[in-house]
Design a protein that fits this description.
This protein has 290 residues and is α+β, with helices and mostly antiparallel strands. Among the domains are: 60 residues; 116 residues, Glucose Permease (Domain IIA) (Distorted Sandwich). The chain contains three helices and 14 strands. The strands form three sheets. Strands 3, 6, 7, 8, 9, 10, 11, 12, 13 and 14 form a ten-stranded antiparallel sheet that branches. Strands 1-2 form a two-stranded antiparallel sheet. The chain has a two-stranded antiparallel sheet with strand order 4-5. Strand 13 and strand 14 form a beta hairpin. The longest helix has 77 residues. The radius of gyration is 49 Å and the shape is rod-shaped.
Length: 290
């Protein structure tokens, strides 16, 4: 190595070698070029890794957006189903109002607040769902007070219907009806306060309506008897039983057994004496049998 030559090296075998001399200036240029290439390569690798990371983030973001759009479309479908249910409820409300003949007037309602033109948000699915929800709320403007009145009216009518005796307390044949008859004991005209239903001894006697047992025991004329208070002024009497199956103070449901057919008390044979009383007065039980 001499002069301005920095490096001297041979390439090849002896006799066929090639001597290469690299000067200081060329070496510096080569080193600079290599440095620049190294910097560019490093920056390129960094940019590629950064772009790959951004591509992954973009892909994940697209997946989240796709999932959100799918959820919004499902929500839109649910709103459609809810709208149909609202229509069904409105139709039911109209039928109930016609049943109870409630014609209550509707009071005016105050409105206000900021508004957004529908056209500016209709292109966004989430805003469109908000619009649908607002429309649905407007369609559900049902007067709560009216519904309370309807509910109370229906409840009172339901309680009244449940209080009215219905059906046969025991299956059999009528041997004596409500009204004037000749007494089987004195052969003189007397007023019979109920129905006599002939049935086999031991057949179960059922309550003709739900209520509270106010008497369960023995009386001279009626024999073993059960009296049930159904409310709303209605009471039913079951007499001449061979035995009583309930105690006083017990609540019984319609159709629940009260006792067995018998012939206790003032009786000529096995049968059930059945009475219905309204506000303390005996009425014809025959109109309640069906």
């Amino acid at each position: 190595m001499s002069g301005d030559h920095l490096f001297t090296f041979r390439v090849g075998y002896a006799g066929r070698s090639l001597e290469v001399r690299v000067g200081r200036t060329a070496a510096m240029v080569a080193v600079s070029v290599l440095g620049v290439l190294f910097v560019l390569l490093t920056q390129g690798i960094y940019d590629i890794r950064d772009n790959i990371s951004k591509l992954h983030e973009l892909r994940a973001l697209r997946e989240r957006v796709s999932d959100q759009n799918l959820a919004l479309y499902h929500l839109d479908a649910k709103f459609e189903g809810l709208s149909a249910e609202v229509e069904r409820l409105r139709a039911m409300d109209n039928r109930i109002r016609s049943l109870v003949k409630a014609n209550a007037s509707k009071s005016s309602r105050g409105v206000g607040g900021a508004e957004t033109p529908e056209a500016s948000v209709a292109n966004r699915l989430d805003k469109l769902l908000d619009l649908k929800f607002d429309r649905m709320k407007k369609e559900l403007l049902v007067d709560v007070n009216d519904l309370d009145v309807l509910g109370e009216t229906l409840d009172s009518r339901r309680l009244l219907l449940e209080s009215v005796p219905g059906g046969w307390p025991v299956r059999g044949t009528l041997s004596s009806v409500f009204g004037v008859r000749n007494s089987p004991f004195t052969e003189t005209p007397v007023f019979h306060h109920g129905l006599d239903i002939v049935a086999r001894t031991g057949m179960p006697v059922a309550a003709s309506a739900s209520g509270v047992v106010v008497k369960s025991g023995y009386e001279a004329l009626y024999g073993n008897m059960v009296v049930v208070d159904h409310g709303a002024g209605y009471r039913s009497v079951y007499a001449h039983l061979s035995s009583c199956s309930v105690e006083e103070g017990a609540f019984v449901n319609r159709g629940e057994e009260l006792g067995k057919v018998g012939s206790t008390g003032r009786s000529t044979g096995p049968h059930l004496h059945y009475e219905v009383r309204v506000n303390g007065l005996p009425v014809n039980p025959a109109r309640f049998l069906n």
